[in-house]
Design a protein that fits this description.
- Pfam families: adh_short_C2.
- By secondary structure, the protein is an alpha/beta fold.
- About 45% of the residues lie in helices and about 15% in strands.
- It has a single domain (about 5-195, about 220-245), classed as NAD(P)-binding Rossmann-like Domain (Rossmann fold, 3-Layer(aba) Sandwich).
- The chain is built from nine helices and seven strands; from the N terminus they run βαβαβαβαβααβαααβ.
- Strand 1, helix 1 and strand 2 form a beta-alpha-beta unit.
- The chain is globular, with a radius of gyration of 17 Å.
Length: about 260
């Protein structure tokens, strides 16, 4: 393990981390790198089970807590619990998201609000809860999971998701600017096509294969590759990077 990726003694909070995708891969890698990790997700049983598996595999303190990222009171209570029982949160990874594809004219207002709340407002609420202590300590790293869809909007009719993920980019930059004088860094990771159970429900195998064939590197991105980018931004190898979002898409989107 690189010394700059050594997270020993640090406490990480990862949202939406009990599914078989980016969140769980990230929680596992942070624990493998020495961090103590709080795994959160909506399903209490699955969250505790995944946390237990990561703890057993890594030997780190890992606990699971159910959390709805749009419930501000629940977020505040969890952060207070972590501070009281473990200490200050050093790393926050905002991974919660959802998608309900529909063109603008066919998007129900409640669907729009639900996607914006989970994908964007949830990031805001968790940052709001952890930042005061981070700024007080002049230490902390936040990583927000965005999407290349924030730039490219390649999936037709995914209106609310595109808007929410573009909002995550702006929220990341704005917050980074505000908290940089207090010693806290805020960055993002924008994944491309990452197969997971949620995506598999949205796209049939033929569609997945077609999307993958358009990626210059010739394959989808593995969740572990997103976790690698998160680890870089969370650790000491990126101490001069803030307000940036790393594109991890296999070349599916290339910025100028």
């Amino acid at each position: 393990m690189s010394l700059k990726n050594n997270l020993s003694g640090r406490i990480a909070l990862v949202t939406a981390a009990a599914g078989a995708g980016i969140g769980q891969a990230t929680a596992r890698l942070l624990a493998e790198s020495g961090a103590d990790v709080v795994v959160t997700d909506l399903d209490p049983g699955r969250t505790e089970r995944v946390a237990g598996q990561i703890a057993e595999a890594t030997g780190r303190r890992v606990i699971g807590r159910p959390l709805n990222v749009v419930d501000e009171d629940a977020i505040a209570a969890l952060v207070a619990e972590i501070h009281a029982e473990w200490g200050a949160i050093d790393i926050l990874v905002n991974n919660a998201g959802t998608s309900e594809p529909a063109p603008v004219w066919d998007t129900p207002t409640d669907s729009w609000r639900r996607v914006i709340d989970i994908c964007l407002t949830g990031h805001f609420l968790t940052m709001k809860a952890v930042l005061p202590r981070m700024m007080e300590r002049r230490a902390g790293s936040i990583v927000n999971i965005a999407s290349i869809e924030a730039w490219s909007s390649t999936t037709p009719g995914n209106t609310a998701y595109h808007a929410a993920k573009a909002g995550v980019l702006a929220l990341t930059r704005s917050t980074a600017k505000q908290v940089a004088p207090h010693g806290v860094r805020v960055n993002g990771v924008a994944p491309g096509l990452v197969p997971n159970p949620f995506l598999n429900r949205m796209l049939d195998p033929e569609d997945l294969e077609r999307h993958a064939s358009l990626i210059p590197l010739g394959r989808p991105v593995d969740p572990e590759e997103i976790a690698d980018a998160v680890l870089f931004l969370a650790g000491d190898g990126s101490t001069s990077i803030t307000g940036e979002t790393i594109n991890v898409s296999g070349g599916a989107y290339m910025r100028a």
